[in-house]
Amino acid sequence: MRFKKQSDYALRVLMYLATVQGDSTTIKEIAQSFGISQNHLMKVVQSLRQSGFVKTQRGNKGGIRLGQPAEQIKIGQVLRKVGEQNELAECFIQVGQCKIDRICQLKPALAKANDAFFEVLDGYSLADILGSPRAMSDLLRLGTRV
Amino acid sequence: MRFKKQSDYALRVLMYLATVQGDSTTIKEIAQSFGISQNHLMKVVQSLRQSGFVKTQRGNKGGIRLGQPAEQIKIGQVLRKVGEQNELAECFIQVGQCKIDRICQLKPALAKANDAFFEVLDGYSLADILGSPRAMSDLLRLGTRV
C-alpha cells in the first residue's frame, strides 16, 4: 500500500520547518531543498495551514512556520488531516461499485487494520521522527540557518 | 493510502472460490462475475498459485480452486504474498532518493504501523470476510452452483 504524494510532502514540509526551529521559510526554499515541485507543495501547505499545523504570513517578513511545537504534532493526525483516508480498496471510494459490497466483510476488517495503523503513528510526534535537528540541517544544507 | 489493484483482485478471486465451495472455476467466470479484466486476473491467479492459496489444473476438467480451506487462509498473509509490501512513502521504494533518508525516523515508525495493520488482518480468515456463502452466491449470480 502506498500514501498519496501529498502525505509524503506534508511530512517533509513539517520536518523542514521543525529543523529551522521557529525561523520563517518559504515554499520555494523547501521545494528546492527536497528537489520537489513548488506547485505540489502549495496545495500541501494550504492543507497544513487549514489544520493548524503551520502558520503562514504574507509580505516581506512573511513565510511559513510551525503552528504548534514539534512535540505536539502527531504523525497519525497529520496524515489523516492532509487527506490520507482509508481508500484501501475500491469499495471505500466508490460504494456499491463492487458487486459483493453489501455483504462483504472485508471492509470492516480493513477499517480496523487502518485504525491500528494510525494508532501507532499517533504515538510519534514530529520531534520523534526528526531525530537530530542539527544532522537534519546538514543534510538539507541549511548552512548557518540553525 | 491505497492497495494495489492486484491485492483487491486477489481477495475477490479467493472470495469467489470460497463461495463455489470446492467446485473448480475459470478465470473467465470470475472476471465476468466481477466485471473486471481477465488479463489482470491471470497475473493475480499466478501469484496466488505460487503462494499455495489456489490450485490450478489444465484441461477439460481443469480450472481453479482453493488450495487451502477458507478458514485457514489469513487475509494479512494473502496481501503480503501478492505483493502488498510496505511502499508507503518514496523512501521504501527508492532508498536514498530522499535527501534526509539517512537520519529520518519516519521510516521505522511507518514500518511499525504497517506491521500493526497486517497483524489485525492476520486475525481474519477468508471464511470470516466471506460472510454467508449463500448470500455471496446470490450476489455473484452463481445460480445453482452452490
- Quick one: overall form of chain A? elongated
Number of domains of chain A: 1
**Strand share of the residues of chain A?**
5-15%
Tally of DSSP helical segments of chain A: 8
CATH class division of chain A: Mainly Alpha
Q: Oligomer, anyone?
A: homodimer
Series of H and E elements of chain A: HHHEEHHHHH
Q: How much helical structure, as a percent, in the residues of chain A? A: 40-55%
The CATH fourth-level homologous superfamily of chain A = Winged helix-like DNA-binding domain superfamily/Winged helix DNA-binding domain
Secondary-structure arrangement, i.e. CATH architecture of chain A:
Orthogonal Bundle
- Counted beta strands of chain A: 2
Widest sheet: strand ordering of chain A = 1-2
Distance from N terminus to C terminus of chain A (CA atoms, Å) equals 36 Å
Within the CATH hierarchy, at the fold level, what is the topology of chain A? Arc Repressor Mutant, subunit A
What does the radius of gyration of chain A come to?
Answer: 18 Å
What's the average pLDDT of chain A? 85
> Ranges of chain A with pLDDT <50 over ≥5 residues?
none
Largest interface, chains and sizes:
A-B, 48 and 48 residues
Note the main sheet of chain A: 2 strands, antiparallel
The computed structural class of chain A is mainly alpha
InterPro entries (chains A, B): Tscrpt_reg_Rrf2, WH-like_DNA-bd_sf, WH_DNA-bd_sf
Pfam families (chains A, B): Rrf2
Keywords (chains A, B): DNA-binding
GO molecular function (chains A, B): DNA binding; DNA-binding transcription factor activity
